[in-house]
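Wait, mind explaining this?

_____
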Amino acid sequence: MHTPALDALPPTEGSWVEVNTDTQRLTFWRGEQQDWHCSVSTGEAGTGQREGSGQTPLGWHVIRASIGADQPRGTVFRGRRSTGEVYDQALGTTHPERDWILTRILWLSGLEPGFNRGGQVDSQRRYIYFHGTPSDRPMGIAASHGCIRMRDDDLLRLFADAPPGTPVWLHD
């Protein structure tokens, strides 16, 4: 288990996001008050920092960028750009091998040098996101390739509530 430095304890003011990988639960906080929560799906390979691991990184992060504000629900992204497709069951059946990144992207950047920032453990360079997933994919169990998958309604709420600069704490 990763223990953050004392100067990286949860904020007592402002909004921040907590993701507990053990419970597969996201909690949105306003200071010391829980505002809302939802189920998520983190890395099927567990938690870890290493590039290429398929694991969800731990520690303190910040939302680096919000992508897709002008796109419709279900927009398919590749390389952080819309493909021009909108996901539906037919598209999913045609491309069953794709790891779908849908609707919006909230791109994370690690805040802890040597742990989740820099070198082979850099969350931003690993392209770790909050993103949407098809409605038939499970929530509440670890099944992603390292990112944090969310249902569209929950992701759209997070996108509205957590602009770039919002702190994020990922822990087990």
Observations:
- The mean pLDDT is 94.
- Residues 15-171 form a domain with the L,D-transpeptidase catalytic domain-like fold (CATH 2.40.440.10).
- The longest helix spans residues 152-161.
- The helical segments are 89-94, 152-161.
